[in-house]
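Fold it.
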Amino acid sequence: MRILLWHVHGSWTTAFVQGDHTYLLPVLPGRGPDGRGRARTWQWPENAVEVTPSQAAEEDVDVVILQRPHELDRLARYWLGGRVPGRDVPAVYLEHNAPQGRIAEMRHPAADRRDLVLCHVTHFNALFWDAGFTSTRVIEHGIIDPGARYTGELPRAAAVINEARRRMRVTGTDLLDGFGRGGVPIDLFGMDAGAIGPPVTGIDDVPQHRLHDEMARRRVYLHPIRWTSLGLSLIEAMQLGMPVVALATTEAPEAVPAQAGVVSTRVDVLAAAAREFLRDPGLARETGREARRAALERYGLQRFLHDWDELLEEVVA
């Protein structure tokens, strides 16, 4: 198939373009949000092809993947040369995010449509978004296996949060100080991580190809995020072989089985679990092995691609 989609979520798209299709990626001068083209920091295969507006308008597109409201309303029609998603070109609206706001007002932009399928990346998202009568599916994340790199040589916790200061409460950045002062030294990776002061050590701008190695040197992975769809860094940490401690919010209780780490809404419970992993490398290593096994089984790349192939075949039939 020839699939048109925007480069919106780099980690998700990296997995998606590993399939057997041709992936048409809009590109514009300056490579802004509506025309990033191919990734600059991930390795993508040659079947991920950049297209300009004039090229896209002439392409024989089998299906378009929409990911943002303005793509649904106008952007896709422009790039498709006037063809309407869902009418002239089969369409899937892919929802990456958990809804925001009051529970009664969490209505999805693609609600009450018969011309497309709404696909969520977690069951939590599907539960909380109100889609009306739009046909919905859930295809859980899959990632490229980073390999069992865990050494745990550094008795510290790793966390990965982008824009940690700006997204303070959403990402649980405000909780890190309590972990640090409670005997859990933390190395925080991510964009603008250096803006967070002691007792957290912020580590900015670690290249993608080095991040997994650096994470795996830390003894435990900390996932303090209050409200997210499902952080792919959590799945990556598990596949690296890291034990995890995570807030029991959104999809995390489903993603982390009991043998893979500790999940709780109580920060004191998570801090105690992290300290135990820091004190006991053997326990950390064994728990990390279980985390890797569970994450490979549930979030493996081949399962992910197979599920998407099934949905795409259904949509274009």
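The radius of gyration is 20 Å.
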